[in-house]
Specification:
260 residues, alpha/beta, 2-enoyl-CoA Hydratase, Chain A, domain 1, Lyase 2-enoyl-coa Hydratase, Chain  A, domain 2, 2 domains, seven-stranded mixed sheet, four-stranded mixed sheet, 11 strands, 17% strand
Length: 260
Amino acid sequence: MESYKNLLFEPRDGVAFVTVNRPEAMNALNTEVIAELHDAFRRIDDDASIGAAVLTGTGKAFVAGADIAQMSDLSVAEGRAMTIKGQRAMEFIENIDKPTIAAVNGFALGGGCELAMACDIRLASEKARFGQPEVNLGIIPGFGGTQRLPRLVGKGMAKYLVLSAEIIGAEEALRIGLVEKVFPADALLAEAEKLARLIIAKAPIALKMAKTAVNRGINLDLSSGVAFEAEASTVAFASEDRVEGLKAFLEKRPPVFRNR
């Protein structure tokens, strides 16, 4: 297990398990945690032996928000600098080549909700709670929440959640499209690992190109998005994995993919 002050980092048979580990602070994000998360996902992206990542939290929280104690002492300039660092970390996590799964085990509020939204797929414990309550503190979501939330749940629902600061449960998060599936608390990590292993059995280059096409295309008009899809598809089609995948299908056997 790799060493971080605020994270547990454990690569295991192709899947990296990253656990935010500040239970005394409900796993709140301070500048140090943000830097460690950025570093951990950089390592995941660079390590060819890792095919996917599962992100979760210790104890009752996934991440209960930004560290209010630290934020209260920041100047305006320091607050802006922290916001930008957080945004860059979330953007990096969102755009790494490897698929990422947020296993939301408890409170995912403020920066925690934003961190979950930066992952490709969100699985939630039935005990999970989500919200962007920043307006209660005289601030707004600053780690991408005002941008990713409407892309996931729609403009109106995003405004409702941000402006009301309402905290919602896992089933409501599922209903509005904030999470993909909900599981009993004691099954969450096993289900996240099961999904990660299902994904890493696929062709790595195809996974990378599919993720890139979705991430890039959602910000483009349809014609431009389809054009980008054609380029991404061509990259996958040119890979050895495509040859192996089609051959295995015709031979009625499981494919053996090598490219990563």
